[in-house]
Amino acid sequence: MIHNAGVYNKDPQRILQVNVLAPYVLTALMDKPKRLVYVSSSMHQNARLALAQLDQGCSDAAFKKYLLLLTKALARKFSTLAVNA
Fold this sequence. Notes:
Elements: E1 2-3, H1 12-29, E2 35-38, H2 60-77, E3 82-84
Parallel strand pairs: 1-2, 2-3
InterPro entries: NAD(P)-bd_dom_sf
Protein name: Short chain dehydrogenase
Organism: Ligilactobacillus ruminis
């Protein structure tokens, strides 16, 4: 399964919903494939995460960081799957 869809240049809440929450929910709802791939970039290196303000959304760089953190968490949880970003 390759998670590649996303939005940019939208309001921060929409970015969070589509680019972070949707991949999480879709992954939770589907039967686990042999591989999970989340398309990312090096933008995560410039991210400043503010979990206390997550209800306000996130920036493009922050969503890349959240997606990377999701990837790492899933790789630990499902050690029999290949999980990559």
